[in-house]
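User: Teach me something about this protein's shape.
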Amino acid sequence: MTERSTAPVVDTQRLVDDLRALVRIPSVTGSEDAVAAWATDALRELGLAVELVAPDTASIRADPDWPGQEMERTSLPVVIGRAGKAGGRRVILSGHLDVVPPGDPATWTTDPWGGEIREGQLYGRGACDMKGGVASILAAVRALGECGALGRLEGELMVVLVPSEEDGGQGTLAAIRAGATGDLAIITEPSNLDVVVAHAGAITFRLTVPGRAAHASQRRVGVSALDKLFALAQALQADETRRNAAETDPLMTALGLPYPTIIGIVNGGDWASTVLDRVTADGRYGVRLGQTTAEAEAELRAAIEAACAADEFLREHPATLEITGGRFGSARVASDHPLPIGLADIAEAVTGRRPALLGEPYGADMQMFVNHGDTPCVMFGPGDVRVAHSADENVPLEEVETCARVLAAWILRELGQT
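Assistant: First, the predicted structure itself:
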C-alpha cells in the first residue's frame, strides 16, 4: 500500500478552528504566555504528555550559545509534548508561536487578529509565519490519534512549540537544553511545501557615526554625520556585492542575493539648522552558509574599519559598531541525507508532487537544532514566506491540510507501529 492510501484522514474543520484560535491570540514576540497556555491545553487534549518549560530568562541569557534578542521579556514559555515509546528513536515536529507586530492596521484589509477566511485563505498576523504550520502539526497528531496509530508508535514523537524565534531563537535553545533533541526534526516554517535543506543567517547591528556640529550657515565648517553614514553605507554595499559573488553553493546562488545587508533605521539630529554631529543606523548583515555569527561579525567589523580608514574624518573619528539583537546562524543538511530524501518521498506519495530541495536567505530555528542540538533538521510547511510579516498575511488552508497529511504519513514511516 502507498502512503497516499494509508495517510490518516485529517479533520479539516478542527484544523481551521485551531488555526483561527491561534491567530486570534496576539502572541507578539516577548508576550507568548497566553498562546503557550493554549498550546499546552491543545496538546493534552490530543493525548500527549505535555510539559510547559519555563526556564529562568537570566540563565538562558548566560548560556554561551544564547542567540540574542530584540524584544524585552520576563518569561520564555516552551511547550513540549510527547507520545510513543521513550528511550529509542525520536523524531521532532517543531514550530514557533511568536509573531511580529502587525504594523499599521490601516494597511490591512482585515483584522490582523481576526482569522478571517476569504477564498480558501486564512488571514491574520502569523497565519503564514507560522501558525499555519503549527496547526498542521496539531492536525497531524490528531489524525494519528483518531486512527489509533499514536499509541502504537515504535519510538517517540516530540512536539516542540517555542517562543522567541523571531528575534534570535532562544526559545528553541531553551527547548534543547530541556532535552528536545532527536534523530530527525521538521520545522513547519512556510515553504510552499518544498523542503528547505539550507538557510543563511543574520546579525543585527548598530552603527554610531560621528560628525562635527556647526551652524547651518557655516556648513563647510562642520562635518555631517549623515554624509559619513552615506560613505559607510556605500562600503557595506560593496561588501555585500563581494560576499555574494564569492558564494559557490548552487542552493544559495540560485537565490540571487542570499546574504543581503540593509540599514533599516536611521536616527540623528535635534535641530534643523545644525550640521549633524551624530547619527545612529540599525541594520541587518547576512551570515553566509557555513559561517558562524562570530565570523560574520568579524567580516562586518573589517568592512567598517576599512571604510573608516579610507575617510579623512572617520580615520581620526571612527564609527563604532555594536551587535544589538538576534544572532541567527546558518545551517545545512546534505541534500542526500535520509531526512530530506525520506520526507520528499512521503510528500510525493501523498500529494503526487515531489517537493524541491531549497536554500533560503533568512535565519530560522533550524540552525539551533542543527548547530546546538545535534539534530538533523529541515523546514517544510504551508504558505509563502513572501507574505510573512506583511499586511494581509495569509496562508492557504489547502496547504495547511496537505502539510498535516504529509506529516502524519512521515511519522508513521519513521516510527512505525507496534
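Now, about its shape. Residues 225-245 form the longest helix (21 residues). Residues 194 and 355 are 5 Å apart (CA to CA). If you'd like, I can walk through any region in more detail.
User: That's plenty for now, thanks!
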